[in-house]
């Protein structure tokens, strides 16, 4: 992630030591395995079975060690809370007012695009959705700075995903109970939100180093589109 000025580094960037430790656990840091190439090299990574519970007092695991979640939890049937996130041009947008407003939306939440698991999760969302991107909005949310998100999207040649940053105050993470309290990162999760901004599908990976079940989210989103 690139700093935007000395005054911003302390409050907006993940502490380097914590991120380094996280990268080791999630499989080395980096942006692209092959920068400048269109074909991403997918790795065989474990897919999470089941879901953790969002909100204060709950936790997920990172290499078997518990990490506490903080904030007001969200569950299937709840409305998505209308907090603001930063777009890659630094403008703020309410999460319920993105360009896919009125459509089904798949929201992929990752700790940091600078880890291989998050990188693969984002490529899979973009490249393996079997045409869903023409019917729904695909969104990735992380605490990476907007500059880092923009750079990642350009290097990965991903142009069908809306990147939103929670770097300012982690308001999205807090409002949905998806913020890892000690690391100040978002947990790994997938949401499918209907045209009325109601959460219809939710998976929070119980182990941070595992991928969510994107295929199941795709199937669920396709059913919602077909039913509407």
Structural write-up:
With 228 residues, the chain is α+β, with helices and mostly antiparallel strands. The protein has one domain: Glutaredoxin. Helix content is 27%, strand content 20%. The strands form three sheets. A five-stranded mixed beta sheet has the order 7-6-5-10-11. Strands 1-2-8-9 form a four-stranded antiparallel beta sheet. The longest helix has 14 residues, at 214-227.
Summarize the structure.
Helix content is 27%, strand content 20%.
The total of helices stands at 6
Spans of 5+ residues with little confidence (pLDDT < 50)?
A: 1-21, 27-37
CATH superfamily name? Answer: Glutaredoxin
Distance between the termini: 40 Å
Query: What would the average pLDDT be, to the nearest integer?
Result: 87
- What number of domains? 1
Q: Count of DSSP E strands? A: 11
CATH architecture: 3-Layer(aba) Sandwich
Order of strands side by side in the largest beta sheet?
A: 7-6-5-10-11
Structure class: alpha+beta
The share of residues in extended strands comes to 15-25%
Question: What does the radius of gyration come to?
Answer: 16 Å
What's the helical proportion of residues? 25-40%
Secondary-structure element series: HHEEEEEHEHEHEEEEH
For the sheet with most strands, the description reads:
5 strands, mixed
What is the overall silhouette? globular
CATH topology: Glutaredoxin
CATH secondary-structure class? Alpha Beta
């Amino acid at each position: 992630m690139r700093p935007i000025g000395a005054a911003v580094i302390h409050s907006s960037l993940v502490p380097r030591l914590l991120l380094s430790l996280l990268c080791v656990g999630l499989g080395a840091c980096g942006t692209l395995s092959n920068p400048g190439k269109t074909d991403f090299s997918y790795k065989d990574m474990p897919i999470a079975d089941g879901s953790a519970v969002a909100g204060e007092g709950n936790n997920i695991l990172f290499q078997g060690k518990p990490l506490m979640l903080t904030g007001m939890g969200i569950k299937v049937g709840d409305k998505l809370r209308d907090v603001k996130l930063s777009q890659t041009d630094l403008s703020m947008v309410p999460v319920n007012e993105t360009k896919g407003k009125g459509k089904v939306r798949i929201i992929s939440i990752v700790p940091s695009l600078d880890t291989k698991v998050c990188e693969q999760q984002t490529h899979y969302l973009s490249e393996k959705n079997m045409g869903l991107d023409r019917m729904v909005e695909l969104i990735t949310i992380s605490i990476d700075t907007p500059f880092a998100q923009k750079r990642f999207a350009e290097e990965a040649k991903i142009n069908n995903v809306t990147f939103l940053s929670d770097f300012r105050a982690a308001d999205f993470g807090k409002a949905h109970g998806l913020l890892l309290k000690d690391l100040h990162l978002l947990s790994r999760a997938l949401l499918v939100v209907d045209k009325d901004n109601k959460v219809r599908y939710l998976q929070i990976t119980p182990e941070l180093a595992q991928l969510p079940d994107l295929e199941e989210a795709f199937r669920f989103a396709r059913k919602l589109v077909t039913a509407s």
